Write a sequence for this structure.
């Protein structure tokens, strides 16, 4: 019986732990208390087999890289730990460990089942998590951001074993998500696997990108998401024009920012993550964008805008007002003459057309150019 129980707990089907009627031969001679113990072991065996099958399917076929990573962690960490527990119990029985083996080599069924009692709640929670990732048909039922939010909520569970399990899976999920974020904010590239699961989506309009808020974990604020979108779009456009060195900002820059992102501890803190994104955006402006927009050129352009549009130099505004006055006076005179013939169209004829506005601006710039040349000739 012990051999059958341990094999069944390892994930192999056993006729002893199947559901039988009380009159069946398989449970003949087993007392009702023993049947209750076997039912507990049968439940754990069934859940173990279900988790293993569903996790393997999710780890290989789920479209979300985050969900794949979590499913793989369930297999490699928690199911493997349960398997080691089964082997440990088997070794204890074979070596006549007094904690399990009593007098005359008798192994109480309660002692064996009691060794796995602490795994029941944890395995049930893992089964719920796997079912959250994929539905009963094995089809994907969630995306990475939803899974991260669920795991962050489960970390607050009142059960210590569930909280520890959720925390370990959350670290895996957030690490996978940070890898996607790193590719975007450091290189301007969308993830090659699970791009539909990422919060940045490519649009067909002029190769632009948009933000999908439902693909963001809850700790990311809209301002941080907007900053991340801006960083990636800037790097992507720089790389599109062929300036790869500017898009990377140098190996030292990328390495330092990778270390900064790697230093973030799970569960991720929204404020710390926002500071990291702010640091990357500042570095982008100081190192990468400054190569495309030299400071001297930017200052010259801003000074020009200040002189002419913020009245640092008033001749542009005066010349424009002069041209506009002449144009309006001519229009009013023509409108007054037409008003005697058609009173209802007088105001309509005063409306300024786009062509007339462009003509006034052209004459204004021409007058400024002429006055500038005259001033230069006077100086010489």
């Amino acid at each position: 019986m012990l051999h059958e129980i341990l094999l069944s707990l390892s994930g192999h089907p056993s006729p002893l732990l199947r559901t039988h009627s009380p009159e069946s031969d398989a449970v003949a001679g087993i007392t009702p208390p023993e049947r209750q113990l076997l039912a507990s072991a049968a439940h754990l065996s069934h859940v173990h087999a279900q988790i293993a099958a569903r996790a393997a399917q999710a780890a290989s076929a789920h479209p979300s890289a985050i969900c794949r990573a979590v499913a793989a962690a369930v297999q490699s960490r928690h199911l493997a730990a349960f398997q080691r527990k089964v082997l440990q119990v088997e070794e204890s029985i074979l070596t006549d460990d007094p904690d399990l083996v009593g007098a005359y080599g008798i192994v109480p069924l309660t002692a064996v089942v009691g060794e796995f009692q602490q795994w029941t709640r944890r395995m049930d929670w893992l089964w719920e998590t796997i079912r959250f990732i994929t539905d009963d048909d094995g089809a994907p039922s969630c995306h990475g951001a939803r899974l991260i939010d669920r795991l962050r909520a489960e970390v607050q569970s009142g059960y210590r074993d569930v909280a520890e399990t959720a925390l370990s899976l959350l670290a895996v999920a957030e690490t996978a998500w940070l890898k996607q974020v790193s590719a975007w904010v450091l290189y301007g590239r969308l993830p090659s696997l699970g791009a539909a699961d990422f919060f940045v989506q490519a649009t067909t309009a002029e190769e632009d990108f948009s933000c999908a808020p439902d693909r963001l974990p809850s700790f990311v604020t809209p301002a941080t998401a907007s900053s991340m979108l801006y960083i990636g779009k800037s790097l992507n456009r720089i790389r599109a024009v062929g300036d790869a060195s500017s898009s990377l900002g140098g190996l030292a820059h990328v390495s330092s920012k990778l270390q900064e992102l790697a230093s973030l501890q799970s569960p991720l803190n929204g404020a710390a993550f926002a500071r990291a994104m702010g640091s990357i955006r500042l570095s982008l402006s100081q190192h990468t964008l400054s190569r495309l927009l030299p400071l001297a050129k930017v200052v010259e352009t801003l000074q020009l805008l200040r002189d002419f549009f913020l009245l640092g130099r008033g001749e542009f505004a005066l010349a424009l007002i002069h041209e506009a006055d002449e144009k309006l006076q001519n229009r009013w005179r023509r409108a007054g003459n037409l008003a005697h013939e058609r009173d209802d169209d007088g105001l309509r004829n005063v409306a300024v057309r786009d062509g007339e506005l462009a003509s006034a601006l052209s004459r204004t710039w021409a007058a400024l150019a002429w006055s500038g040349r005259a001033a230069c000739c006077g100086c010489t």
User: Anything to note?
Assistant: The chain has a mean pLDDT of 80. Residues 291 and 317 are 34 Å apart (CA to CA). The radius of gyration is 36 Å. The first strand starts at residue 200 and ends at 202.
